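Q: What would this complex look like in 3D?
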Amino acid sequence: MQTQLYAWHAENGDIVDFAGFQMPVMYTSIIEEHMAVRNAVGLFDVSHMGRMWIQGKDSEKFLNALVPRDLSKTNVGRASYTFLLNELGGFRDDLVFEHIEENKWLLVWNAGNYEKILHWIKLLSALINHFSKLDIEIINISSSSAMYALQGPKAEAVLKRVIPENATPPSSWNVLQTTIDSCDVIVSGTGYTGESGYEIIVFNTSNEENTNAVNVWTKLLVEGKQFNIKPCGLGARDSLRLEAGYHLYGNDISECINPLEADLFFPPFIHINKSSFIGKPQLEMLKEKPLQKIRVGLISMKRGPSPRSGLKLFQGEKEIGVISSGGFSPILNIGIGMGYILPEHNVENGILQFQVRNKMHDVKIQKYPLYDPDMYGKSRKD
Amino acid sequence: MSYKVDDSCKYYKEHQWVRVEDDGTCLIGISDFAQQSLKDVVMVELPEVGDTVTQGEVFTSVESVKAVSDVFSPISGEIAEVNEDLEDAPENVNEDPFGSWLVRVKPSNLDADLANLMSPAEYENFCA
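A: Here is my prediction, written as structure tokens for the whole assembly.
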């Protein structure tokens, strides 16, 4: 599959397959794109992610039964991050819910779970509807919209130049319905890089008629030029989220990993005292049991091979875990990653090893974010 | 895209070059094609002096932000020296792929090994 910007990506970048989509891994250099987001602003095409409307009088009640977060607290104009859990308390997906209007929600979920989540939500609503009439409508808009992430300390300055003068850029986790270049868009104060910034959904556009998608993308690049904006590919998206310590579905969380193990079992992502939600009995049971493993951040002790997904972790001779994600950090100039280890080995600054060929390489257990939060990321001190 | 090919080298199909030096030892590196595909090289894993390498077998790796790439040995022999400069300046591989050798090898079967490799002209064709 291709996003509406495929022709632009193919002309300007290197294309790889990701979750069935032909996506740009980079345009010029992953390091340059990564640094643009940390120091200025970067623009990503994230249209491969799934998007659907859930609307109708019962939409909030329906959604609140699905997720461990209390969505009744997500007012109109706000967005929330949470999970869909499975029958064992594992992750079905992680996703963002935007409360656009009274009885109207927008869900954004992972490209890798596109079919799974779409069908599961439709199935549940059909099942409930079979027993008692449910006033909800599910509209998949994944291919009739486009979605971009504008990220970095200069993102706000760029956004101000493209939205109408009387509009205010939404603050973190707020949502704004507005226009860019006369195209209808929804802008949310969200993203997955560790930096402040926005995700922008462009409407009335499709692979067949992509004028609006192309216009908004081009407008952002043109108006961002004075701030040294860079189009960024999936390579920088991955290295940025890794530095921030953000988990990636399919690597760091999955159907077989639960929120306690992923160290994501806390409000507001999970309100365990909510009256009911899918996965609640399992989480209540799991939290009384000893943890089997825990997710930790890792940082290499010196230059050498970076931690990589799938490599085993050792402490001395003893195998104690596995790396779930890893790579090179352009900010720290060293290998970083995250992995799952036996909980008794989770000691801050504890030293672990991973093996590449016949050599062991030391990594240190490190809190997120892996960069200095005073210098980078949304809480940086100017 | 265009790729530089160094006329003083012979080439293995996984994009490594080997250059026979006057003293009979051989330098091994990765080609311009390889470094352009990897982009931003951030780490060259240096093997140990004394390790043996075998033609067509992986003996080390080069890492860019994009990917980790196995490095195959174009010839068989014993590692006599590793290019320690690359430990601190792996980007040299991007800037000067034919100058930034990874290892110096004392060859054990040089004539037969060289016969299996591509000439500069053949390699240029191979990359096209």
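A: To summarize the key features: Helices of chain A lie at 6-12, 30-39, 59-66, 114-131, 155-162, 211-224, 234-244, 280-286. The CA atoms of residues 49 and 111 of chain A lie 4 Å apart.
Q: Very helpful, thank you.
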